[in-house]
């Protein structure tokens, strides 16, 4: 039998088990997990640390590609500068008990970031997720992060980490938006079935409902797999879509990193109290 996750305090510990163990959630239900998205600049990072969020997501990049001097900073493209370096960010976040998700848009930042993570590893006895979009997805036109060197670099430092591996996507209000195709999902499974650590697949809420059959097939391929539903700022989707997704899948296998006000409405609809 393959293992689903690492033991208590490991970077691959299932986040539901970690936060249950720490009495921060009441049941093994992915909708219980509260996310803070884009905690990049110091103001957002400090807000995230004071918030009720269980998981803090932030973006890592190099300010100027190819510069030997540059160290990873916390910013989301098109930004290329920040008042926060990854080193400063890790120093503050390690003082908390929150889980971490680091998102990479380019390969260049991965190795220097892993080196900084290695310095704080002994202080991080909690889930750590490392994210990149490694395959082209529905309506996507962003550059993907090359899958093999990304996975190889991360695992060479940390074989015991949770991967968050996604597809580049787009959403257009005036067009018919295709969902995730069987080809896209099967290509992802081809990459992930050789891994031993847990993998969550970040998927775009507005495109999931028409792709439920594909994702059910994918989740049944391994008990290491889960989905993380995320939303674009201007995406058009309904609370009914989220409720449909919730009913379609095992509640332990789906997390919801969604924006307000839909997050609040969704939690209310399923009877989860939201701390504002």
Task: Sum this structure up briefly.
This protein has 276 residues and is of the alpha/beta class. Helices cover 32% and strands 18% of the residues. The chain has 10 helices and 9 strands.
Helix content: 25-40%
Structural class: alpha/beta
What gap, in angstroms, lies between the N and C termini?
Answer: 41 Å
How many E strands?
A: 9
Output the helix-strand order. Answer: HEHEEHEHEHEHEHHEHEH
Please give the count of helices: 10
- Please, what is the average pLDDT? 93
Strand percent estimate? 15-25%
The major beta sheet can be summarized as: 9 strands, mixed
Pfam families: Menorin_N
Protein name: Menorin-like domain-containing protein
Family: Belongs to the menorin family.
Domain Menorin-like: 29-262
Would you give an account of this structure?
Pfam families: Menorin_N. The protein has 276 residues and is of the alpha/beta class. Helix content is 32%, strand content 18%. The protein is built from 10 helices and 9 strands. The chain has helices spanning 15-21, 42-50, 86-93, 110-120, 147-157, 182-192, 205-208, 212-220, 239-248, 262-269, and strands spanning 35-36, 55-61, 73-74, 99-104, 128-136, 162-168, 199-204, 225-230, 254-257. Strands 1, 2, 3, 4, 5, 6, 7, 8 and 9 form a 9-stranded mixed sheet that branches. The radius of gyration is 18 Å and the shape is globular.
Task: For the structure shown, list the relevant keywords.
276 residues, alpha/beta, 18% strand, Menorin_dom, Menorin-like domain-containing protein
